Structure formats: C-alpha cells, structure tokens
C-alpha cells in the first residue's frame, strides 16, 4: 500500500517551458544587479560562500561569482547555491504577480483525491525548497502548500543517485516499498527504484522507449490500487 507520494516538478506537475522560458530568463536578467545589491544579506551571502566552496575558490570576487553563476545557468548545472539564489530572485516575481506557478490541469484534482485517502504528499526537485514552495504557493490554482507534508531539494542528494532516495525515505520515516516517486526522467526513477521505491513516469508527449518504468500521460491515470 502506498502511504506517501513524492513528486518531481519540472516536466511532471509543471510544463518545462514555464521553467525554461519564464523562470530562468527572469533570474538571469536580474542576477548581476541582485547580487551587487544584496550580497551582504544573510541568505545571499550564505549562498555565495557555498558557491565559493563549490568551485574551490574561497577568494573569488563578486564578478567571478556572477560569471560562474551565468555559466552554470548555461550548463543547466544542478548547483545548490545557484538554485538558492534563483529562488530568492523568483520570490519577487511571484509576489509582484509577474507570473504564477504553472500546473497541468490534471494535477490538483489528483492531489486532492490522494489527500482524501490520507496519503502524504512531498516534493523532490533540483530547485531549492524555497523555490518549490513559491511555485506551489503562487500557483495557477492558488496556494497549494497546505497539501504538502514536506519538500526536498539537492541538499538531500542528487536526483539520479540511489542514496538520495534512501535519505528521503529515512527522513519521511516510511519504508521504501510504501513510497511512490513520480518523475518524467527515467534516470531519476531508476535511482528511486534501486532504493526500493515504486515509480511511475509522467510522459506528457511521446512515450519514452528507453524507460522500463510504467508510464502515464496524466496524473488521473495513476491507479494506486494497482501498485503491488
């Protein structure tokens, strides 16, 4: 029996184009001025200290850090410090109403149905926990954060590493064979399955012919009662 469901965001609950065409450019355009203005504030300073450690350059200048962050953006690098800074910048956009967090129409009704079954919902994304809360807190459907029991980002481990899912299971306190992970990326699902989780792949377009995971196109096609 599935007792908790952990979902990815990008490509799973949310159109990847929202992230790449709206969120990423919004942060990129504001990054340099933002860091120059707020680098001494606690959350920003901590992220920059973490970035210096990540690139093994403890004395890197602000200009070098900005160049590094822009390069990380170009590479779509899953850098925790970059994701933290992006999340801080995105907060302004959400609060000002420049955009709302995109959700596929089939997501919320299914989440609500699962909650009526007393299933706990969690998020695991490469975006920071703060960014996750912003997307669901300022979503197209309103504030959905009360639906979630918890959130995980790359601080728990990379999404393609088996140990990350063991860490999440330990944190949740539920055996892996009672957990379900949802993602559009089969590499992530491979890691979760290796850790003993159940997995389902969300495919919004053509089927993934390489994947060995059960695939669905919509959230309401997920039948928990069919999961052994």
From TrEMBL:
Function: Bifunctional enzyme that catalyzes the enolization of 2,3-diketo-5-methylthiopentyl-1-phosphate (DK-MTP-1-P) into the intermediate 2-hydroxy-3-keto-5-methylthiopentenyl-1-phosphate (HK-MTPenyl-1-P), which is then dephosphorylated to form the acireductone 1,2-dihydroxy-3-keto-5-methylthiopentene (DHK-MTPene).
Alphabetical list of NCBIfam families matching this protein: enolase-ppase, HAD-SF-IA-v1
This protein's name: Enolase-phosphatase E1
A molecular function GO annotation: 2,3-diketo-5-methylthiopentyl-1-phosphate enolase activity
Enzymatic class: hydrolase
One GO BP annotation of this record: L-methionine salvage from methylthioadenosine
Enzyme Commission numbers on file: 3.1.3.77
Subunit structure: Monomer.
Native species: Providencia burhodogranariea DSM 19968
Any matching Pfam family: Hydrolase
Gene designation per UniProt: mtnC
Alphabetical UniProt keywords: Amino-acid biosynthesis, Hydrolase, Magnesium, Metal-binding, Methionine biosynthesis
Cofactor(s) required for function per UniProt: Mg(2+)
Family that this chain belongs to: Belongs to the HAD-like hydrolase superfamily. MasA/MtnC family.
Cofactor annotation comment: Binds 1 Mg(2+) ion per subunit.
Superkingdom in the source lineage: Bacteria
């Amino acid at each position: 029996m599935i007792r908790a469901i952990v979902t990815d965001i990008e490509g799973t609950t949310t159109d990847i184009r929202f992230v790449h065409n709206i969120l990423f450019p919004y942060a990129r355009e504001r990054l340099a001025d933002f860091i120059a203005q707020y680098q001494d504030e606690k959350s920003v300073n901590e992220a920059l200290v973490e970035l210096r450690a990540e690139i093994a350059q403890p004395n890197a200048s602000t200009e070098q850090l900005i160049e590094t962050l822009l390069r990380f953006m170009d590479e779509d690098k899953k850098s925790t410090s970059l994701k933290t800074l992006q999340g801080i910048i995105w907060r302004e956009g959400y609060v000002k109403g420049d955009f709302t967090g995109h959700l596929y129409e089939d997501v919320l009704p299914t989440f609500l149905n699962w909650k009526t079954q007393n299933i706990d919902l969690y998020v695991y994304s490469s975006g920071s926990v703060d960014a996750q809360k912003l997307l669901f807190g300022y979503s197209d459907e309103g504030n959905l954060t009360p639906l979630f029991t918890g959130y995980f980002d790359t601080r728990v481990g990379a999404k393609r590493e088996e140990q990350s899912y063991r860490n999440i299971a330990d944190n949740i306190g539920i055996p892996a064979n009672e957990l379900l992970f949802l993602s559009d990326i089969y590499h992530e699902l491979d890691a979760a399955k290796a850790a003993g989780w159940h997995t389902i792949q969300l495919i919004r377009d053509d089927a993934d012919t390489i994947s060995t995971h059960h695939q669905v196109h919509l959230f309401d096609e997920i039948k928990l009662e069919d999961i052994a």
